[in-house]
């Protein structure tokens, strides 16, 4: 299935209620499971990645398939390794290409029994849940912060607590801070000094929790606004002082002509006249936004040089390759100046064929390319339902603010 998206007057106006953050939803679900809490999680995300977490945690079987959900795979590996039983944890074909050895090695060094069922270093995993007695672990921080979050979440429940030593460069650090902030809300004390995190054995507070709206999902509405001739859009559900590193998009979108306002009636975005000549930015703290900014910058004819993209090749798809290939279909010639970088210097090539954007089972490919409808409504987006991974009602909300979606 493919979607063509268009809007008669191209003016973006209305109110959007952002979905709940899947990152927060999945952390809180693990915390509740670790503390045997049945207190409600209000505004829990209904996306695939959060639903699959819920299914595993409330399942009667011992074989679990988490599909494309990276956080579920990583957080559950740590969780299940301390729950007595024999577990099999698998995922989609792509999940079997996403590395997990840094986490598995760390857990095994603490006394866990996690082994590989197919390729060494990758899911599927066999996990023999046991009592983890180790109290100190060292791991590399340069591949995925999700391994560190997975260890942090179980840390207060281990017999001796846990000291985590991070080696080398730390990627996606904002997500480690999100984890620690949420743990703090649940009453956990910790110390993060230099490259070491100390968590003593403690009990999570049993309490109801409300999940905040998703800043990563908000980025697509900012993108529509950046490409629209005129508009004013209220965004509901987002917190100004959020734990989500992606809330940093406010400053970056200011460089692309979108202003954020916090008023009594809520938060809203609108155009400003200030647009930078070239966007140079390091995405190491906000990896999920690289696609949004690449598409918007290119379509606004703003050359860019992005850094800090080292983790993009092991996400839902190789996002560097996907951006180069799909923006090439629109004529933009992107290049990789170095590993972990992506740039567009303004070079264009001629394009004649009909344009169908491939999404590679990656929700963010579909959502980051959707705003091109403001300028190129003839372009089609393939396999649009991939958005369910994090933002199930994305297309419905587009319709609510006046977009027409044609299916083919
Ligand atoms: O902890 C989290 O919730 C996430 C961490 C990031 O992954 P990496 O740490 O692998 O970069 C991010 O890309 C992902 O969407 C969600
Ligand atoms: C990378 C992502 O998700 P995950 O790693 O949790 O699959 C994402 O949502 O962009």
Automatic annotation (TrEMBL):
Species: Paralabilibaculum antarcticum
Assembly mode: Monomer.
Amino-acid positions noted as binding 3-phosphoshikimate in the UniProt annotation, renumbered to this chain: 22-23, 27, 144-146, 172, 288, 315
Domain of life of the native organism: Bacteria
Binding-site positions, phosphoenolpyruvate: 22, 70, 98, 146, 319, 364, 389
List of catalytic residues: 288 (proton acceptor)
PROSITE patterns: EPSP_SYNTHASE_2
Pathway recorded for this protein: Metabolic intermediate biosynthesis; chorismate biosynthesis; chorismate from D-erythrose 4-phosphate and phosphoenolpyruvate: step 6/7
Protein's UniProt name: 3-phosphoshikimate 1-carboxyvinyltransferase
Keywords: Amino-acid biosynthesis, Aromatic amino acid biosynthesis, Cytoplasm, Transferase
Keyword Nucleotidyltransferase set for record: no
Subcellular location(s) of the protein: Cytoplasm
Catalyzed reactions: 3-phosphoshikimate + phosphoenolpyruvate = 5-O-(1-carboxyvinyl)-3-phosphoshikimate + phosphate
Principal location listed in the UniProt entry: cytoplasm
InterPro entries hit by this protein: Enolpyruvate_Tfrase_dom, Enolpyruvate_Tfrase_sf, EPSP_synthase, EPSP_synthase_CS, RNA3'P_cycl/enolpyr_Trfase_a/b
Keyword Kinase among record annotations: no
Domain Enolpyruvate transferase: start-end pairs: 61-398
HAMAP family the UniProt entry points to: EPSP_synth
EC number from the UniProt entry: 2.5.1.19
Family membership noted in the UniProt record: Belongs to the EPSP synthase family.
UniProt gene name: aroA
């Amino acid at each position: 299935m493919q979607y063509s998206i268009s809007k008669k007057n191209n003016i973006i106006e209305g109110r959007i209620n952002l979905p709940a953050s899947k990152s927060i939803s999945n952390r809180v679900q693990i915390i509740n499971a670790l503390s045997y809490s049945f207190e409600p999680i209000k505004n829990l995300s209904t996306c695939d990645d959060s639903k699959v977490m819920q299914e595993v945690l409330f399942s009667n079987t011992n074989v679990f398939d988490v599909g494309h959900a990276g956080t579920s795979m990583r957080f559950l590996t740590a969780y299940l390794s301390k729950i007595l039983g024999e577990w099999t944890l698998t995922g989609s074909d792509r999940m079997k290409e996403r590395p997990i050895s840094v986490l598995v090695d760390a857990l095994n060094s603490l006394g866990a029994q996690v082994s590989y069922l197919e390729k060494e270093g990758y899911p599927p995993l066999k996990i023999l849940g046991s009592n983890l007695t180790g109290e100190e672990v060292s791991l590399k921080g340069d591949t995925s912060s999700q391994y560190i979050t997975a260890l942090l979440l179980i840390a207060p429940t281990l017999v001796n607590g846990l000291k985590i030593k991070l080696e080398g460069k730390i990627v996606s650090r904002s997500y480690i801070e999100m984890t620690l902030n949420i743990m703090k809300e649940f009453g956990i004390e910790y110390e993060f000094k230099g490259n070491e995190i100390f968590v003593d054995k403690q009990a999570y507070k049993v309490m109801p929790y409300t999940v905040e709206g998703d800043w990563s999902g908000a980025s697509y509405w900012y993108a529509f606004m950046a490409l629209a001739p005129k508009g004013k859009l209220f965004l509901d559900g987002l917190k100004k002082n959020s734990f989500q590193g992606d809330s940093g998009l406010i400053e970056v979108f200011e460089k692309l002509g979108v202003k954020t306002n916090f008023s009594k009636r809520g938060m809203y975005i609108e155009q400003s006249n200030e647009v930078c000549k070239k966007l140079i930015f390091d995405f190491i703290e906000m990896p999920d936004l690289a696609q949004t900014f690449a598409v918007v910058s290119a379509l606004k004819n703003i050359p860019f040089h992005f850094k800090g993209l080292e983790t993009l090749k092991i996400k839902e798809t190789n996002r560097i390759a996907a951006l180069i290939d799909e923006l090439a279909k629109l004529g933009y010639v992107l290049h990789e100046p170095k590993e972990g970088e992506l740039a567009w210097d303004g070079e264009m090539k001629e394009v004649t064929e009909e344009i169908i954007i491939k999404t590679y089972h990656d929700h963010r490919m579909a959502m980051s390319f959707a705003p091109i409808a403001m300028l190129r409504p003839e372009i089609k987006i393939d396999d649009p339902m991939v958005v369910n991974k994090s933002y199930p009602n994305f297309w419905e909300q587009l319709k609510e603010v006046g977009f027409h979606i044609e299916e083919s």
